[in-house]
Amino acid sequence: MSSIQPDLNYRHLLLDFRADIFRRLTMVMVTFCIVAAYTLIFMQPLPHQLVFFLYAFSGFVLLIRNFAQRSPNLARYIFVLSMYLGLATSMILLPVTWLPFLVFPIVFISELLVSYASIILAAVFFGFTALLGHIAHTNYPIQPLALFLCLMITITNRGIQVINTLLLWYSSMYQQANDLLEDARTRRADVVQMLKSLETAYQTQHRLQTQLIYARQQAEELRSLKERFASNISHELRTPLNIILGFTEIMHLTPEVYGNITFPPKLQRDIYQIHRNSRHLLEMIDDVLDLSYIEISQFSLSFEPTDLKQFLDDTVEMVSHLFQDTSVEFVVNVADPLPHIEIDRTRIRQVIINLLNNAHRFTPSGSVTFSVVRREKDVLFEIADTGLGIPEDKMHLIFEEFYQVDYSLSRAHGGAGLGLAITKRFVEAHHGQLHVTSEEGKGSVFTFTLPMPNNQRRDRLDFPLSPTLKTEKQESLWLVVDADPHVITLIARHSQGHRLIQIENDSLIHAAILQHSPQGIIINQPADRALPSHFSNISIPIIMCSLPSTTQMVRHLGVDACLAKPVRPNQITDQFQRYPQLATVLVVDDDIGVVQLVQRSIETQYPHIRVLRAYSGQQALEMMRLTRPDLVLLDLVMPDISGFEVIADMRNDPELDCISIILLTATKYIYSDEETRAGMQVHQNGGLRPMDVLKLIDTVITTMEMSGSR
C-alpha cells in the first residue's frame, strides 16, 4: 500500500502539472499567432492566406482550451498535433528556409504535454520537411535540421526526465508533508485534549487546595476545641476525684480530726482501697489528658525497675473487691520467684485491671483465674474466665477502638470499647505480645508477655512508643530550673534515659553544679527573657525553654504560689510556713467539697486559724471588703467571675492589693492556654561543634515535620 500511494500521487501531480502548462501554453500560442498575423500585415506582398490561417489557428487553440475542461488528455494531444499541422501549413503558405526551425519549441512543448508521441511526431515532421523541399524545390537545410532536431529531442528528453524526477521528489515530499500535517493535526488534537485535561486538573487542584485550606482551618478549630475540652474535662474530672483523695487521705492518715473515735480495721482497709484506687484513677486521667495532646504512637513511657511479685500483690489487692459478694470465684496463681523487670507500672497495672475487669463483666458465674509464670525469655500473664466467650467472627475486631461485642441498647456490660485497644498498645509498647483464645459459651483466655531484662530491646524498632532504656550508670544528670514540679515531671516523661534534679530558682544553680556535676542545665522561663548574666561563665550546655508552668503563671499574675488539686495537708504546711502571722484565710472555690476539704486540711494542721469560705468570685470580693483576710486560697476556674478577674479587681483596689494569694486549680495550664506557644534556645560556652549543630538541625527538622503533619 505504501508503494502504490506515491505512484498515485505522482500521476495526479503530473496531470496537474501538464494541465497547468497546457493552459499557459495555449494562451502563449494564441498571443503568438495574433502577434505574428499582425506582423505579417506589413510584409510585401501581403500573405493573405497565412494571416487568415494564423487568426483561424488562434481561434482553434481557444476551442481546444475550452474542450480541455471536458477531456484534458485528448485536448493536449490535439493541441500538440495541431501545432505540428499549423507549422506544416505555414511552411506551405510561406516557403522560407528558416521556418522549419520553429519545430524546436514545438518538440519541447510536446515532451511536456504528452508522454509517448513527441518523437514520432518529430520524425514525421522531419520527413514532411524533406518531402516538401523535394517537391517544392525549396532549399531547406535538411542536414542541420536533422542534427539540431536530434540534439533537441535528446536535450528535451533529458530535461523532461529531470522534471519528472523533480515531480516525483516533490510528490514524495508532498506526501510526507501531508503525513506530517496529519500527524501535526492529530498531535494538535492530543495537545488540545491535554490542555483541557491540564485545565481540568488545575481546576481540581485549585478546588483541592481550597478544600485543604478549609480542612486545615477546621483542624485548627478542632484542635482549639480539643484543648478547651481537655482543660474543662481536667477540671470536671479531677475536682470530684481530688475531693475523694483529700478526704480519704485525711481519714486514713489523721482520723483524729473527726473526734475521739476509732475506725474499725475493715473500714480503715476500705478507706485505704478507696484512696489507692482513686490515686490510680487520677494517674489514668492524667494519661488521658496527655493523650488528648500527644498521639498515642508518640506517647512516652516511664520505665522503672520493678519487683514484679510485690507489684502483682498490690494490683491483685486493688481488683479483688470486684469479686467480693459475687458468684464468680477469683483464683490467683502467681509463681514464685518472679524477676525484677523494667516496666511502666501505671500502664501495666492498667493492662491487668482492664483484662480482669473485662473478665469480671462478661462472667456471670464460674471463675476468673489470673496466672503469672516466668519463662526462659519472658514473663507470661494469663487471665482465663468461664464466661460468655467471644463469637469467632468477632475475634479480629475486639482490639479495635470503640468496638464492643454487644451493641444493643439493652446490653448489660458497660464500657466505651477502648480498654482492649489501649491494652494492646501498652503491651506492644513494652515489646510484648497480647493474644486471645475464646469459645462462645465457654469462656476466654487472654495472655500477654513482657520480656525478661536480658531480652528487653534497647532500640525503637518500628514502634515509636518504645523508649530507650538505659542503666543507672548510663543515665545523664541534668538540672531543671523551675519551681513547678509538673514541669520536671513532664520533661522526665518525654526524655528517657536522663536523671533530672529540680532547682527552684537560678540563684541556687552554682551550688547545685558543684554538688551534682550535671551534664547540662534546662532553664524554663518566658521566651522574651534573656539568659541571666551569671550563667555566661558556665561551661556546660544550657537549654532555655518556655514551657508554660505554674511558676510562670505565678510570676505573671503576681501571686505567691500555685497549688494543684488535690491539696494535701503537707502542701498547706509548706506554704503556710512563709506566713508566720497568719490569722484569717479565705478559701474561694465554686465546689463546696473542695472548700470543705481545704478547710479540713487547714483546721487539722492549724486549728487556731480562722477559715472563711466563698463559693463564687463575687462573694469572695464582697467578703474581702467586709473582713480583710491575711491569705486567699483562690480557684481560677469559676462560673460567674473567674479567679483571673478576682485578682484583677484586687489589684485595682488599694484595700485588697496587699492581700497574699495562693492559687488553687485542677486544670493543667501547660495545655489549656491556647495563646501560649513554647520556644527553645541552646547555649554552649565557646560554641558548638559543626557536627553537633548538624545533629541538632536534623532533630529539629524531624520534630517540626512531625508537628506540621498533625
What does this structure look like?
- With 710 residues, the chain is α/β, with parallel strands linked by helices.
- The chain contains 19 helices and 17 strands.
- It has a five-stranded mixed beta sheet. A five-stranded mixed beta sheet has the order 9-8-10-11-17, with helices on both faces.
- Helix 11 links the parallel strand 8 (476-481) and strand 9.
- Helix 3 runs parallel beside helix 5 (118-136).
- The longest helix has 112 residues, at 142-253.
- The radius of gyration is 55 Å and the shape is elongated.
Summary tags:
710 residues; five-stranded mixed β-sheet; 53% helix; single chain; alpha/beta
Structural topology:
Layout: H1 4-40, H2 48-67, H3 72-93, H4 103-113, H5 118-136, H6 142-253, H7 265-291, E1 304-307, H8 308-319, E2 328-334, E3 340-343, H9 345-361, E4 366-374, E5 378-385, H10 419-429, E6 434-439, E7 443-451, E8 476-481, H11 485-493, E9 498-503, H12 509-516, E10 520-524, E11 542-545, H13 550-557, E12 561-564, H14 569-576, E13 584-588, H15 592-605, E14 610-614, H16 617-626, E15 631-635, H17 643-652, E16 660-665, H18 669-672, E17 680-683, H19 690-709
Parallel strand pairs: 2-4, 8-9, 8-10, 10-11, 12-16, 13-14, 13-15, 15-16
Antiparallel strand pairs: 1-3, 4-5, 5-7, 6-7, 11-17
